[in-house]
Structure formats: structure tokens, C-alpha cells
Amino acid sequence: MHHQPGGAAYDVVLLLHVACVLAGLATTLTAAATASRLRRLLGAGRPIPEALHRYFQPGVNWAGRAMYGIPVFGFALLAMSDGAYALRDGWVLAGLALFAAAAVLCEAALWPAERRLQAAVATLAAPQDPPTVSRTIAGDAVVMARSACVALVLLLAGVVVMVAQP
């Protein structure tokens, strides 16, 4: 059994690490739910509510990018652990691999689909009018929803690995 690292600085970095994990989980869950809702509304030919118009306003999803703090603070925790934990530990490598897979998925599928949907929703008619939907918009909603669900599973698996430390 390793000694448990401690101290105020370690605790602050650990809290920041956990905050980034929670932000990543929350934004990924929100992306999955919002894309699924948009897909259902588009499929039914129903008007897009103002809340969805606000969600899909053009711009970078900075809250989602908070997940990049996970490895940053994780490496800081490793450095501050005085040898209690190391990059060669299997659970650390597994967590890093799960994070890398989630980040690649978000960068390659989730966030590009979200940006395309932002542009498409911005051009749709007023919220009270049923939209005319192209297959591209519907396809981007599916890609966003599915990739967000997979990224969420990867992040949750990373949480399990980090907590269990097998």
C-alpha cells in the first residue's frame, strides 16, 4: 500500500482535476441529450424551441474543452505524489488511454458536428416555425448524439478506473 499524498496544494490540484472531470461529464451528457432532442424535433417536423436555438448559438464549446484539464491536473497530481503514483501504473495508463480516446472522439466527431449544427440552426427560421430539414442536419444531430454518448461512456469508464485504481 502506497502512502497517500496530502497537503493543501495536492488537495487543490485534486479538486481541480475532479472539477474538470465533472465539467467533461456534464457537458458531454448535455450534448448527447440536446442533440437527441434536436433530432427528435427535426424528425417530427416540429418547431425548434428558443432554448435549443440558444444552445446551438455559434461559438466554441469552451465548457466542453474543460475536459483537457483532466490530464493536465492528473500529471500534476502524479508529480506531487512523491512516488506514490507513477505513469507506469496500469490504472494511470488505462485512465490516460480512455481520456485520449474520448478527446479524439470529441475532436473528430462530436465538436465538428456540433459546429455544423450551430451554423445550420442559426439559419433555420424563427423558433415558432417548423424547420425545413436537410439530411445533413439530421445526420449531424445523429453523429453528435452518438459520439457524445460514446465519449460519456469513455469518461465514466475513466472515472471508474481512477476511483478503483485496480
What features would you describe in this structure?
The chain has one domain. The model has no long low-confidence stretch (mean pLDDT 90). The two termini are 12 Å apart. It has helices at 8-44, 50-55, 62-65, 69-80, 90-123, 135-164. Helix content is 74%, strand content 0%. It is mainly alpha-helical and 166 residues long.
The overall number of domains is: 1
Q: Tell how many strands the DSSP assignment holds.
A: 0
Q: How much of the polypeptide forms β-strand, as a percent range?
A: under 5%
Anisotropy-based shape: elongated
| Main sheet: strands, sense, barrel | none
Round the mean pLDDT to the nearest integer and report it.
Answer: 90
Poorly predicted sequence stretches spanning 5 or more consecutive residues: none
Helix content: over 70%
Question: Which class do the helix and strand fractions yield?
Answer: mainly alpha
Give the distance, in angstroms, between the N- and C-terminal Cα atoms: 12 Å
**How large, in whole angstroms, is the Cα Rg?**
19 Å
Secondary-structure element series: HHHHHH
- Number of discrete helical segments: 6
Condensed summary:
This protein is mainly alpha-helical.
Please give a handful of descriptors for the protein shown.
166 residues; mainly alpha; 74% helix; elongated
List the helices and strands and how they pair.
Elements: H1 8-44, H2 50-55, H3 62-65, H4 69-80, H5 90-123, H6 135-164
Helix pairs in contact: 1-4, 1-6, 5-6
